[in-house]
Amino acid sequence: MLYDSHCHLDAAEFDVDRNAVLARARAAGVTRQLVPAVNRAGWPKLRGICTEEEGLRPAYGLHPMFLADHRDADLDALRRWLDGERPAAVGECGLDFYVEGLDHDAMARFFDGQLRLAREFDLPVVVHARRAVDAVIQAIRKIGGLHGVVHSWSGSDEQARQLWDLGFSLGIGGPVTYERARRLRRTVASMPGEFLLLETDAPDQPGQAQRGGRNEPAFLVEVLETVAALRGQSADEVARQTFTNAERLFGRGA
Fold this sequence. Notes:
alpha/beta, 8-stranded parallel beta sheet, 8 strands
């Protein structure tokens, strides 16, 4: 069994064939998926999808790349939503210093607020950290008492060690399948297994075999096989470890 720890199954790209996508995922052995939100408007749709399909766990949050959608009142709304829904995690939230034109102060304010909510509700946090890993680590340290995952890992080994010390896992997805991702592959080959999670970030970040196309959860098998080869383990071993890790972090759920 495989656990896709980061999959935007509620995205519009899946509206035309979501059931078929889920069927392909289950046929490939992907029996659990964490589905993180990106903005307040999308929370009801995400909840409906996760309620209708066994094996889907929701996370609710405010994504930094959707900053234009967010309002300060959304943090209060998120607190009420978390209290009523009791999801698997808070997120997707975080910092993105790659996209130009985003208000870094506003981004940090929303991130800080969501970290505080994660601590208040004792929920794991699903973190986006593109070109912003040091700032993310600083924010996590400042709030304290947190646990979660930094998804789509692309940082250094030293940054990874700091996150492990803080109780955070790393989400590994399609980028690891590219041979040019040498630093990422080195990290994956030697990192402690208890902090390893597999993800697709579907419909984004497809692996080498689907380069240029829409990503989907069934393609997690390519990530699994690459990670297993890098670590010198069998695919079954990595599948068991990462499934256990994800269930420990996000709860067993349905």
